[in-house]
Amino acid sequence: MKYILLGDTHFDERNGEPKLLAMQMRFMNDQLFPYMVENGIKTIIQLGDITNNRTHLSLNTQHEMLKMFTKMEELGLDMIYLVGNHDIFHKDDREIYSMEVFEHAFPDTLDIVNKPELIQEGMYLVPWLCSTEKLTIPAGTRGVFGHFEMKDFYVTRSFKSEHGLDKSFFKSLPVYSGHYHIKQDTNNIHYVGTPYQLDWNDFNTIKGFHVLETETMEAEFVENTSTPKHIKITLDVETKQVVIDGFTSDAITTSVDNFLKGGLYGTHKIKVFAKKELAITKKLVESLEAVGHIVKLEITPENEDVNVEERIEKVKSMSISENMLAIVDDEDKTVTHDIITAAKSLMLQERGE
After folding, report:
1. Whole-number pLDDT of residue 85
2. Which residues contact 317 (CB under 8 A, 6 or more apart)?
3. CATH for 230-299, among 3.30.70.260, 3.50.30.40, 3.40.50.720, 3.30.420.40?
4. Gyration radius from the chain CA atoms
5. Domain edges within the chain
6. Helix 336-351 and helix 320-328: axis angle, to 10°?
7. Which of 30, 54, 202, 238 is the most buried if burial means most Cβ atoms within 10 Å?
8. Tens of pLDDT along 165-214?
9. Helices in the chain by DSSP H: which ranges?
């Protein structure tokens, strides 16, 4: 039997910001659901954090989710949903969770997993574990599916978790988990990642969903081809060459003219880096904006040689007041992004997320 394995969707990210929410629903409606219908797959196992805010769910997000579950019901699809840490009202208690109302509205479409449960074919389903809970693996388990915090896996591309379960706990059992947004595989442990890029922390990371075959407990990855990526374009104003990073697995180098003739299919969020704002810089930005891309131009000073890793380490050692002063004094905004990224990583670590 085949199932779809879907990572953290984080509906209501940025309080249901309309463009982001539309992107999330486009992935579900335009790629995931048609794939399931075409391939005869009925059930999604959503591995936690289907929503984003632990205390509320905006009205527009509720409206879009209502339409989404109605469509699933019409198509004969259903979802097994594991309660994640972003879905619960109390930090260390799963009693109140964001999907309660939808559970009652769609009893034949939604199956909520609010406590560890062994189901058919030896699939052990585990929601976010509270601090007082101790995980045990029941007899008959052939594969584990959860929302786990584990040590030595990447929370973001630059930050590895130092907390949580040790991967050796599962021995050789195949494990598929949500929680961390980066798709990563270490032996029998598989973090499926978010199905789409949510922000610049997802730059140059592959996104999509997995198709599980229960006979083997192996999963095939299907790449997301329907939603925007975060892309960096570096323009050399002297040679009129561009390097496009984040659109494909390898960076692309070509001339500006060739690039503008071919373009980038889809609409994406793009940062253009150039040392000078010349006519060719303006032409590149305007051409990208004209076809629907969201573009931000960043002029980098001549002979700038920045070691980002060193800068982030410096930021981590700074006090909050020092961080704030650095942002205020950052006229060309060269360190602000790194300060925010480092601060976010530290907060996630401190909160155990």
Report:
1. 96
2. none
3. 3.30.420.40
4. 22
5. 2-223, 230-299, 308-351
6. 150
7. 202
8. 999 999 999 999 999 999 999 999 999 999 999 999 899 999 999 999 99
9. 18-26, 33-38, 59-75, 100-105, 256-262, 279-290, 308-316, 320-328, 336-351
